[in-house]
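Have a think about this chain, tokens included, and walk me through the fold.
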Amino acid sequence: MRIPAQSVCTAIRDDIVSGVYERGSRLTEELLARRYGVSRVPVREALRTLESEGFVVTRRHAGACVAEPTEQEAADLLEIRMLLEPLGAARAAQRRTEAHLKVLRGLVRLGQERARRGEGEDLRSLGGWFHETLAQASCSPGLIALLTQLRHKTAWMYAVEQPARPVDSWAEHGAIVDAVARGDAERARALTAQHAERSAAAHRLRRRPDRPGRRPAPPSRVSSSQHDVNIASARH
């Protein structure tokens, strides 16, 4: 089965974000193709995409390597995200569908229940889904793409502490959804800006470990456009 370059790109990006490939480590086409069970062609295309996104750099005499962002670059990205998320919420208030609202309300309900019960293990993923859905509700492909890339990069560069009072955090999510449902773009923008500013304080810059690179984890799963494929056994 042919695995599209986009799926290979997603798998490599996920492995970079999760730390399987540490910053500065080499990414050779041959080893990547073997790891993901594909030919070198989609790997080459994926590396070009990841370079355009800032996850990969090409170095003379070394080839493709995982990028090593500076503290200033990381701070800039977090600030950009804080500026764009309120814009996404304002657009969502103007363009959201009933389907978007249904998902957002469902996520808020789940988040509030988990927060009240002290079940913090699910809150991080629920928060990610909430912000992803809020971005999708903007119905702006360019903005959605930027916010998606920013979420990936901030997850790579920062560790995020759980809020001290998750009930309050999910109350803020609920207020944002209420503003979006009413079509109140300015209130949705203001509430999201306040939430983003508070959330930014919980971000802690990840430091590159002073030790040899870790051994790669078992191969990920690459999702093709039609099937979920175990890339260790897939063949191109």
